[in-house]
């Protein structure tokens, strides 16, 4: 009897720990992580792929790409807001226009500007909108599809944005990461549309409506700033938004719908890659030989 009493006393605190304090309780933490992953699988994957994802799901590696790129963009913004002379924080002035990172048509021979413009933002509302959206979508996508896929789609949108702007709006400058953000939204939108029947109907409707509302509002405001307002300073192109979205709806769609499949065996992947490369070389030739922008 004495031994049994000792055993009961020993196990009692463990039972209390499971019900009350989950510190040092890996099982409870594991259940919370599993619940967290189930939520993301419902948002990102059709039903037949969720079980496979949950069997393999873990947070290693964490969503490192989207976090690092967001920190880099925030760091550059703070640099120009604090260490460069500015009239105000809300809308940055000459500092960003003179930056070696900004895409400007007269400096397009400096090829790095076609990518580096994503680090420079024109004001608090500009960078906060991009950071909130890319973290909200990017972290969720990266937990399911990992950093390589999300990084490829994001950078494809950034490059597509600057190249398209150099062709269709050749006299305008370009700042901000909207091309990459819209690529993520474009890929996610196509995923939601294609897999609509295989997900909860209300969830699918909600996702599509939210994306349409955000895109419509943002693009409309960008067009308003480009053509209607007469603010002093260099005009900023809105074409990167549209081109980034198109990149997302093609390359992003293929990457985000090929979970647990080999991309190289998917003909859609090669169609998108060949189309993207063809558009890339056309844009390069246009900028070298045909662009009306000043050299």
UniProtKB/TrEMBL annotation:
Superkingdom to which the source organism belongs: Eukaryota
Keyword Nucleotidyltransferase included in the entry's annotation: no
An individual GO BP term: proteolysis
Acidic residues: bias regions: 1-21
EC number(s) stated in the UniProt entry for this protein: 3.4.21.105
Claim: Membrane is one of the keywords in the record: yes
Annotated InterPro entries: Peptidase_S54_rhomboid_dom (IPR022764), Peptidase_S54_rhomboid_met (IPR017213), Rhomboid-like_sf (IPR035952), Rhomboid_IM_Serine_Proteases (IPR051739)
Keywords of this entry: Hydrolase, Membrane, Protease, Serine protease, Transmembrane, Transmembrane helix
GO cellular component: membrane
Domain Peptidase S54 rhomboid: 109-256
Active site positions: 178 (nucleophile), 241
Subcellular location: Membrane
Reactions catalysed: Cleaves type-1 transmembrane domains using a catalytic dyad composed of serine and histidine that are contributed by different transmembrane domains
Region (Disordered): 1-28
Any GO molecular function: serine-type endopeptidase activity
Family per similarity comment: Belongs to the peptidase S54 family.
Entry function: Involved in regulated intramembrane proteolysis and the subsequent release of functional polypeptides from their membrane anchors. Known substrate: EFNB3.
Protein name from the UniProt record: Rhomboid-related protein 2
Organism of provenance: Sinocyclocheilus rhinocerous
Recorded name of the encoding gene: LOC107730925
């Amino acid at each position: 009897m004495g031994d049994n009493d000792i055993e009961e006393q020993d196990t009692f605190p463990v039972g209390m720990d499971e019900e009350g304090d989950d510190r040092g309780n890996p099982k409870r933490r594991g259940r919370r992580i599993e619940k967290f992953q189930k939520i993301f699988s419902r948002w990102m994957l059709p039903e037949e792929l969720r079980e496979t994802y949950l069997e393999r799901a873990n947070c290693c590696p964490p969503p490192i790409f989207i976090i690092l790129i967001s920190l880099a963009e925030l760091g550059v913004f703070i640099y120009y807001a604090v260490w460069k002379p500015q009239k105000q924080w809300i809308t940055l002035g000459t500092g960003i226009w003179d930056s070696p990172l900004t895409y400007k048509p007269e400096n397009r021979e400096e090829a790095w500007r076609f990518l580096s413009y994503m680090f420079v933002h024109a004001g608090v509302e500009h960078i906060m909108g991009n950071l909130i959206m890319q973290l909200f979508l990017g972290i969720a996508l990266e937990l399911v599809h990992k950093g390589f896929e999300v990084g490829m789609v994001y950078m494809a949108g950034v490059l597509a944005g600057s190249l398209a702007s150099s062709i269709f709006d050749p006299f305008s400058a370009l700042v901000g990461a909207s091309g990459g953000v819209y690529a993520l939204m474009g890929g996610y939108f196509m995923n939601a549309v294609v897999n609509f029947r295989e997900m909860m109907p209300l969830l699918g409707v909600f996702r599509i409506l939210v994306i349409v509302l955000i895109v419509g509002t943002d693009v409309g405001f960008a067009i308003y700033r480009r053509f209607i307002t007469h603010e002093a300073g260099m005009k900023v192109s809105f074409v990167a938004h549209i081109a980034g979205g198109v990149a997302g709806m093609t390359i992003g769609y293929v990457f985000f719908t090929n979970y647990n499949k080999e991309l190289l065996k998917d003909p859609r992947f090669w169609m998108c890659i060949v189309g993207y490369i063809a558009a890339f070389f056309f844009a390069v030739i246009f900028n070298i030989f045909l662009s009306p922008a000043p050299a």
